[in-house]
């Protein structure tokens, strides 16, 4: 007799998707089984079952060992609605029956939360579209926008989309050379920014760029900026002046089609110059339809708040914002400063948060730092943590619960850091440390979903929030195929279920804009080469090792995966960041580590490095005995996590200045730009190797 799981899988493998017809003729995407619609409840029951979590992917027949989801879900996206970003925002307006607010934010002057209604939004977005046409911008033209995540960006996106123009978001902290390259490549005639510094990048390099119209939002441009713009024949407008151009204009909307380009999303630049990935309306909306169905595992209601703080130029933020609005929710924007992130969360009290591991690590470290201050609180916390963790592992508690006695005794403060009513956390951008993942599942008690994807392939795999295991990114999402390809120089072979990850997906990008060579290098016979190295575990879940191009070789011939080491060393609380590197003519690894100044100074005092005087932070960073002690701390952590001697560092440089996006060493999603870091610290690394090993009694 078939189990309920086997029976459901058999039904789903016979899926034929048909549109769901509603009264006005609009047809919505739905999975059906043999002519009968499969409900959200049935899908959720399938993908949250223990049988599914025990085997999340299956191998298709053939020698390539191609894997797909074991849930048997497959989709045909024809005739779906919405299928453009314009339709998606109209659809969102219809779904939001709770408060009619499309977005909100904290007024930094009054500390009050302010909102923008859908009616106000559509009126202002229409003015934007009319103003663009009045300035001579045509359908298919690029409109470059460099904003922090805000209501102005949302309005600009809709105004651009309604005229079939192409949105060109630019990361707020890109340097001038990268901005110049992007603007030249897209031939953007108009550039919209939110600070004078961003405007000056164009004004001071006007002869190198195609920009002829510059719009400045958020403040009135200074007289000097206006004069400088005029001197280089750039038309400078404040946002209010720009909006006035659209008043009482009656240009016909030029609505986009599914196959039209929505945007160029530039890669983060971790391995070289950013490249513009072409993403169509249809591909992005196909991704929305799939992911929104998977997120039904965590309740989402009209009026729910989604915290929006990631860069507008990142496809992950665009997708999550779309999920928020199309489910009838309200996008809640942050203040724009990473320093105020925690206070923003507490003030806004969101229900759903798209996260990156670096931010989750910061919250994790803050909680444990507080616990060290009070012995009694630490004992209570650890007792409750271990008890709840054990009950979740034994299936006596659901991982999605926060009303137990242990939550009331010990975990309420952790939830309050995130606002107190968090329902869903989705982590992307980089692998999440299993201990951090476990911490959030136990203490926050919400749905924590880890996804793997890329700008080019969008979402590829996803975990189940009911899965208590970590160290993986789950199985393939429906309609996605994954195969591993040999990396012989690293001795990785697909026959052993390890290799470079290749993806075939209906959501994949169209190619890189005006870069045929890079497109051919990435799209190979219809497969997207991600550059990530991974392996399948026994439960059919994908584990990510590192970037193929990030791996380096030591003189012994041993290949080193730096991200694995950085992840382990990064959990040592006195450090904020650790960058690992090595050379093929050297026989050990070295590190550039950034101490957390407050925790580092306490540690130094406890280790008696301060003696009778109080040295400054910078002096301690250069002290050879302090460096040796830091080296021992990191190596001890590495030994506890099973690193072998070749993976352990033997020399260290303590960097007193934190890594940041502004300095160029971090991407906008807080990943280290490895090539940039290697160039920046090339001389430092040379000096570390000249100094030699600091272990075994040396120097």
From TrEMBL:
Please give the superkingdom of this protein's source: Eukaryota
Q: What is its EC number?
A: 6.2.1.3
Statement: the UniProt record of this protein carries the keyword Lipid biosynthesis: no
Give the matching InterPro entries.
AMP-binding_CS, AMP-dep_synth/lig_dom, ANL_N_sf
| One MF term in the entry's GO annotations | long-chain fatty acid-CoA ligase activity
Q: Which PANTHER family match?
A: LONG-CHAIN-FATTY-ACID--COA LIGASE, LONG-CHAIN-FATTY-ACID--COA LIGASE 5
Name this polypeptide is given:
long-chain-fatty-acid--CoA ligase
Q: What organism is the protein native to?
A: Varroa destructor (Honeybee mite)
